[in-house]
Amino acid sequence: MPFAVEAQNLKKFYNGFQAVAGVNFRINRGECFGILGPNGAGKTTLVEMIYCFLPVSEGRLTVLGDNVVEEPRSIKKRLGVVPQENNLDLELTVRENLLVYASYYDISKPVARERADQLLHFFGLSSKANQEVDRISGGMKRRLTIARGLIHTPEILILDEPTTGLDPQSRRMIWEHLRQLKKRGLTLVLTTHYMDEAGQLCDNLIIMNRGEILEEGSPSDLIRRQVGEKVIEAEVNPSKREHLLDNLSALTCETQVSGDTVYIFIPEDETAVVDLLKNNRELDTYRVRPSTLEDVFLKLTGRGLDYADAEEFAGREYQAL
Ligand SMILES: Nc1ncnc2c1ncn2[C@@H]1O[C@H](COP(=O)(O)OP(=O)(O)OP(=O)(O)O)[C@@H](O)[C@H]1O
Ligand SMILES: [Mg+2]
Questions:
Q1: 226 CB under 6 A from ligand 1?
Q2: CATH number at residue 190
Q3: Per-residue pLDDT of the chain (321 residues; tens, 9 = 90+)
Q4: How far apart are the first and last CA of the chain?
Q5: Which DSSP state fits 319?
Q6: How many CA atoms lie within 13 A of 174 on its CB side?
Q7: CATH number of the domain to which 250 belongs
Q8: Which one of 76, 105, 190, 288 is most buried, by most CB atoms within 10 A?
Q9: What is the number of structural domains in the chain?
């Protein structure tokens, strides 16, 4: 059986600017696949090529075995899309938004009505069915946009930043819906810049930066490979930092500095590092905690994902690789 998506040396140029730089990856059917990266990494560009909205500049891209260049119409019928910006019709009601979308796929009216009601029920929107979209909350709009992407019962659902800008409760609700959809056999492809979201939902993921793939694998593989099971966060006065970093490098620890915090990626055994920190009177505080994907990103790029100024980041060299 062909992969859900297969990309080989895939590139995208916008007037000579390379937004996707020759990437290779495969998405298995039935999995939740994550595309992670900061602003401008090329996530939207990549998924827009997958759902045949943007033409491929170079390389090969197949979806469910069909080439996006040759078979865009049949691919579009088998894909559902939840774009980065909600593009719902604000003047129509919640249910009408689903019915109008169904008509684009030549779904008969009775079938469309039945599916719309099922989806509204699944996403907890039945009581809002006749409400104008303008009047519903941000989290509800997002759920409606996901429901709309499913109206033609696609095999793959592509979600571009499904929970950006939502409150924690709405995010968790969407995660739960996505888990249930995966259980029903749907392939999910999602972009995100939330590491916790990827860690919670994704079976496999790629981490992108400036159009390139920096790393790929399952969340637990990436954590084990890049940063180990545990990380120590130590608060150190900048004037004392160099001394500590020298001592740590003697213990072959990899470190990353962010503000006043030194992140110490512990090799196998943390005892030697903890002893060093205990005996270091210059240290304010430190804590040992389980590693997360955020640490992987920090180690790969020298910077966390949640930062305000993407432009500034774009100008920086990343330190790893
Ligand atoms: N239509 C366009 N014309 C020219 N450049 C573009 C266009 N669309 C995107 N880009 C550039 O391509 C790069 C990748 O953009 P893209 O929107 O794919 O990133 P992203 O990872 O989705 O970012 P975000 O997290 O902000 O949504 C950026 O540098 C962006 O400025
Ligand atoms: Mg985007």
A1: no
A2: 3.40.50.300
A3: 899 999 999 999 999 999 999 999 999 999 999 999 989 999 999 999 999 999 999 999 999 999 999 999 999 999 999 999 989 999 999 999 999 999 999 899 999 999 999 999 999 999 999 999 999 999 999 999 999 999 999 999 999 999 998 999 999 999 999 999 999 999 999 999 898 999 999 999 999 999 999 999 999 999 999 988 889 998 888 888 888 888 888 887 888 888 888 899 887 777 888 888 887 766 678 888 999 998 898 888 776 555 433 444 444 444 333
A4: 34
A5: -
A6: 27
A7: 3.30.70.120
A8: 190
A9: 2
Please identify, by atom number, the ligand 1 atom nearest to the C-alpha of residue 46.
18
Task: Give Cα 19 to chain centroid, integer Å.
Answer: 17
Out of 164, 183, 218, a domain closes at 218
Ligand 1 contact via 37 beta carbon (within 6 Å)? yes
Question: Which residues have C-beta under 5 Å from ligand 2, the single-atom ion?
Answer: 43-44, 84
Angle at the Cα of 218 (from 62 to 321), degrees rounded to 5? 90
Q: Are residues 197 and 257 in the same domain?
A: no
* 320 in a structural domain: no
Residue 27 belongs to some domain of the structure: yes
The burial class, CB within 10 Å (0-12 / 13-18 / 19+), for 17 is exposed
For residue 321, being part of any structural domain is answered with no
Q: Are residues 209 and 233 in the same domain?
A: no
- Domain closes at, from 176, 194, 218: 218
Q: Which ligand is nearest to the CA of 38?
A: 1
Task: Looking at the structure, tell me whether residues 43 and 160 fall in a common domain.
Answer: yes
Ligand 1 pocket mutation, candidates 44, 207, 209, criterion most atoms within 8 A of CB: 44
Q: What range does the domain containing 166 cover? A: 5-218
Asked if 43 and 50 touch (Cβ cutoff 8 Å), the reply is: no
